[in-house]
Amino acid sequence: MRIKLQALTEHIHGFLLILGITAFLSCLIFPSHYLFYFFHSFLLLIPFAVTAYGQEKIKHFVSYFIIGIACAILLFFIGSNFWEKLYFLILSVAIMLIRIPSRLQKTDDYEIVDENVIESGGLFDSPSAGFLGYFVLLFFIALLLKRNDLQTILYWITFAWLTDFLVYTNLKSLNRYLYSRRNIANLPGKQIISTNRALMIAFSILALVVMLVVPLLPLDHIVYSIGIAIRDFLRWIFSHFSSEEQTVVETAAESLATSGQSAMFGDVRPTPAWLKMLYDILFAAILFVVSAGALVGIGYTILMLVHRFYKPSAVTGDIQEFINEETESTFLQDSEKKERDSLFSMLFNPNTTIRKKFKKQIQQGSHLNKKAGNFIPVSLTPLELEQYAKLPDDERTHLLHALYEKARYSKDGCTKDDVALLKK
To answer: Domains of the chain: which residue ranges?
Structure first.
């Protein structure tokens, strides 16, 4: 299910589906004047798409920087007030900076590490976690806009955006770490993954609590108090200069105190006619994308259900029907072997006991001889492993070597008598 969900979010039909669901729900729930900010946030797709294209196609790093800064400046002038301009500028620069490591290493945002990891590619595919979090957060922007407090929302969305990319970067780094150490035999991979999962769950819960608490804080009052403190500090500094300069500073400070918080946000300018036309075109395009996303989503859901609940006989390999007499005994033996190889039986299997004993001896020998990191390379043969761990050349080592090869390579494997012989 996780792999299918990842594949859904990493392709263009998943992108359309997420876009369609979030936009459609917002259109149903909220009045039209709230949708202005909701659709306005879609302008961040410009730096997202441009930097994704530049990461793959542009050869010179300076050119990549130029197009990123150009997108940030463009969105800065589109903003209707200071805080919205700052919001677009910060997130545009953050999008550009986040892609710099991948641009320098000339690698994709998400690299394949094994057969269970879906490889990403395309303009709207990387990073999938960023797109999923982005559109989900756009939905909550429309919820929070009922507070009519754009400054609080900007802090909230910026924090959520950076949190999402921290989680994504952590998962990508973990995959690279495990991939770089894939040839280490005794690497505790499951413990590392479990520990990282627990830390990420704790971090996500903490981030969610912070994101829910931040809009409730009086940020406007806090920022205003900081402004008053800076004003008093400047007044104290300029008090050592001439009385004329001090009068100018006090006059400016009084005007700031009189205007209060409204001076910090700036007035919203009337929307030009050309910008209204642009919004109408954008709204029509988004409605088209919503319809396309809904249709593609419905079709993809039906296709997934068909593949989930129906498989042709050529795929399932209906081997229990029409079984030949010649293969009947082999089929029954394979079934019995699978039953014997269950988890409970494997714990007390003589072959498992012998192999664990051999591995323990190699680990102890490597530790005593201070091998680097106590890591065992899996590419060595049993004899080379014994030489690597510098095991003593005695009868017990020879017996362990013979039983290990019997447990690993022979068809019948070891018996309980072999285990008892080793324990003597």
So the answer is: 2-217+270-306, 222-265, 328-423
